[in-house]
Amino acid sequence: MSEVIVWKLVPERAADDEVRAARGLLSPAELTRADTFVREVDRRCFALVRAALRRAVAGALSGALTVDPAAVAFSEGPYGKPSVVGADDLHVNVSHT
Fold it and tell me: Which of 12, 39, 45, 69 could form a disulfide with 58 if both were Cys (CB 3.0 to 4.6 A apart)?
């Protein structure tokens, strides 16, 4: 059975403490990438979106076990599309519109 879940985020409305909490879930590589954005709004958006993706994946992977969103590992395809390491049957996508 396939399931599609769509999340809509509005990063511009996030409080500073939400951004700090989001950054706390990111890997060192994701933090480095977030910090490369010139504009603060883009740094905040990246952190919030990646944290939301981690939470969504952790929720999808949780069955009898609880999965820590910070423990979710991603790899990226040649064009930057994220995939979940060790979960070949779980497909994710991020779109900024």
Answer: 69
Based on its alpha-carbon atoms, the radius of gyration of the chain, rounded to whole angstroms, reads 13
**What is the rounded end-to-end Cα distance, in angstroms, of the chain?**
28
Beta partners for 74? 84
Neighbours of 47 (CB within 10 A): 27
Q: 26-52 pLDDT, tens per residue?
A: 999 999 999 999 999 999 999 999 999
* DSSP string computed for the chain: ----------GGG--HHHHHHHHTTS-HHHHHHHHT-SSHHHHHHHHHHHHHHHHHHHHHH-SSSPPPGGG--EEE-TTS-EEETT-TT--------
If one counts every other C-beta atom within 10 angstroms of the C-beta of residue 57, the result is 20
